[in-house]
Amino acid sequence: MTHSGATPTTADVETLICATATKISGRYFPSRLTALVVTGSTARGESSVREHPNGTTILGDLELVIVTTDGSSIPGLKEAVREELFREGIECEVSAMFCSKHQLLGMPASVFTYELRECGKVLVGEPTLLSKMPSIQRSDLPLEDAWRMLGNRAVELLEALSSPELVKQQTGVGYRVAKLYLDICTSLLIFTGDYEPSYRARAEKLAENVVDISSRVHTDLSEFALLTRRALDAKLSGAAIESFASPVDVRAVIHLLQTIGSWELSRMCEGLGSVDAFMASRTLQTRVRGWAAVVSRVGVQEAAVNAYRWSTLSRRGSPRHLIYKVAFELLGAHENASPQQLMSFNRLLPLPAGGQLSWSAVAQSTAANYHRFVEVTRS
Question: Which of 24, 68, 162, 200 gives a 20 to 30 Å CA spacing to 185?
Fold first, then answer.
């Protein structure tokens, strides 16, 4: 964002981002696009904005829900929004979910749909659209959905740590570590019944109830509450985010991830706090649905080549849970994983890494499998 004089505020930048998305989407309204909704950090006023001499960078992405007449995607729309933002001096990744109005109003209870209904902003289309979504009580938020959040953030951190470029520049790793602190807080508060639909409110809730929550988790979380506040300040200001890329912070957040993740799994698996126990508790139908989604995303030839191995893996878990397991294991071992461990982890991936195995190679393959098979589905 090029500017002269006073530095624009986060609110100024978010207003320009929404105006740009509205302008580009308006080309398709109402023939193909019936509504445009912004959700996530931009809708909540919690974007991470970094100003520099050549413009503005948004850490994270602009999350759009695009309602079309038949639920199909509009090719090139999110790319056009990103390019127009770049022309305005704003570097910002754009993610988009396309759906029909019927699909929007029928979305099942999840953290995403709760925050979409409560915090989303309709930029184009019927102003009261989101209020027509079914009301969701916080107590109805699925616990597995909260735990999945940890898996998603774990893969994102793993991807950053395996990228020499992101490790060198530190911003990418630091942002993911800070985001992981914030979403560990989110996930934990869903399990304890203290969830709030914004990072600010969640950090405050954790600080207020840290003694009670610590007793329930059987771990002193007072330091975690302070780190969450520090992560929130860094995310909202866009400053000092690199400080979270230090080896100390990386090790600390991975240890916390393992501690809280294990406690959450024990809540869902009758005291057994491991991913293996959780996978064993899932129904065959659940596992098969996940593998069917994998088959639908690869060609017939690739599916045929992997059919036997995928059939064997399906007895152990779904693609999502196996990818999460590998991510947690790789983060725990970091670069100290033995060749035998790397081979074992790699075999659990739908499409394993080829050639000489290294920690980075298996980590990057884990991220690639996540983006291809997990990020685009709820299976």
Answer: 162
pLDDT at position 321? 97
Which of the four pLDDT bands, split at 50, 70 and 90, describes residue 118?
Answer: very high
Residues 6+ apart with CB under 8 A from 320: 148, 151, 290, 373, 374, 379
113: Cβ–Cβ under 8 A, 6 or more apart, which residues?
A: 107, 133, 136
Please report, rounded to a whole number, the percentage of residues in the chain having pLDDT higher than 70.
Answer: 98
Residues 338/136, Cβ–Cβ less than 8 Å: no
What are 361's two structure tokens?
A: 């190679």
**What angle do the packed helices 143-161 and 171-192 form, to 10 degrees?**
170
Find all residues with CB under 8 Å of 378, minimum gap 6, and list them. Answer: 110
What is the model's pLDDT at position 5? Answer: 54
Q: How far apart are CA 232 and CA 227, in angstroms?
A: 8
The DSSP bridge pattern shows strands 55-68 and 90-99 to be parallel
Two tokens, residue 201:
């409110």
The boundaries of every CATH 3.30.460 domain in the chain are: 10-136
CA distance 219 to 20: 46
Task: Note the pLDDT of residue 2.
Answer: 52
Mean pLDDT of the chain: 94
**Helices and strands per DSSP (H, E), number in the chain:** 18, 5
**The token pair that represents 63 in the structure block:** 């999350």
How far, CA to CA in Å, does 365 sit from each of 114, 360, 371? Answer: 32, 8, 10
Tell me how far the alpha carbon of residue 241 is from its chain's centroid: 18
Q: Is 25 within 8 Å of 36 (Cβ atoms)?
A: yes
Strands (E), 26-142: 33-39, 48-52, 55-68, 90-99, 121-124
DSSP string, 146-191: HHHHHHHHHHHHHHHHT-HHHHHH-HHHHHHHHHHHHHHHHHHHHH
Q: Which CATH architecture fits 10-136?
A: 2-Layer Sandwich (3.30)
Q: Give dist(CA 96, CA 119) in Å, integer.
A: 17
Give the separation between CA 102 and CA 124, rounded to whole angstroms: 17
